[in-house]
Fold:
Amino acid sequence: MFEKILVANRGEIAVRIIRACKELNIRTVAVYSEVDANSMHVQMADEAICIGKAPASESYLRIDRIISAAEIADVDAIHPGYGFLSENAHFAEVCESCNIRFIGPSPRAMSALEDKAVSRALAKKAGVPTPPGSEGVVENEKDALVIAKRIGYPVMIKAVAGGGGRGMRVAHNDISLVKGYHTARTEAEKAFGNSGVYIEKFIENPHHIEFQILGDNKGHIIHLGERDCSVQRRNQKLIEESPSPLLENKFRKLRDKIGKAAVRIAEAARYTNAGTVEFIVDNDGNYYFLEVNKRIQVEHPVTEEVTGIDLVRYQILIAAGEPLQHSQSDIQMKGHAIECRINAEDPFDDFRPSPGRLEMYYQPGGRGVRVDTHAYAGYTIPPTYDSMIGKLITFGKDRREAIDRMSCALGEYMISGIKTTISFQQAIMQDPNFRRGVYSTAFVEQLLGGARRELIEEKT
Structure:
């Protein structure tokens, strides 16, 4: 087992990793930017090293500085968390060349899945359905128009690298396609250093369903069931739950089918460690492969709650050479879990970020309530990074109990000094369609559209 691990991240995921290390009696090293000097992960780690100024390009994305910190602290391994360098195959290779274990998939597996267009080809080879679209990167707007005409509007323009909704645009005609093509490329270049995009058929009002996978270094791969991540704003997840109400209530047989498809894709890439295979499912029960996220996911706690498996602990054990302790038949989902991402944003102003000092911070508790956060009273949410304050997770014997528990917990969550998504998420918990499990990726926009109409009617 490792003696010391460097956590190459910040915020709640850094705190989560440090806790897992403490349970395994592993010492930890935090790296931080100047603006994060008072962050919780810095205070919790056994050692902390500053690696640069606030911009990620001068700190958390600097491979040389992270490796230097790792060598100075004499660590055995690096856990990248999510975002930043977590899916960077070159970073994993550099770690290996420095005899530092990278806690994640192998560079080979990451390279095989790094390009989303290449991932689509891998899925097809594994016999998994993919949305109609381009065979690879679309090099110019002329080719984009030809492809859109062939598969029919609407289409989705997507960056081949990265995630988090960046580099994605929907086009309904030639004009919006040309504009979206160039905008997506520019955004992708800024976010990921790769302007490549591909095009696929846009499935309207789909359900976004993903399967958690685990693979050890012996070639054993299992899935831990699904998460429904359809409640999104601007292609970024806002609420996640497990199991999916769509699969529970309408398409029960799909769970086994999609789960096996996720494992086949992982096997084709010789995947190791934790990862997520994402799909979209339409209202007729057709499913299509989207991509593989080659890291721990923000929403991993809902899977932990319904399976009883500590995913971050498993990541560390697998990286240390331990085999999987579970077979597929061991995995049973019990009860229901929901996660709300508590963000420093104004949901009624197009989710505009609301950085600033937390004048008051009080988080909920009680049976079936979990909070993963790095925030505390007096902490300042910087404008430099993601706006997440923390994640509120509730667990119940069934979906109704989990929703009711979430509604109560959101009511107890008290944050002042900035705007948050809490009130909006409270409204979602009371929405009749959400409570029935009848929603898609268009849910948030439809809900906000209704709220805007009500506001206009009140004013008139």
Observations:
- The mean pLDDT is 94.
- The CA atoms of residues 353 and 415 lie 15 Å apart.
- The longest strand covers residues 221-233.
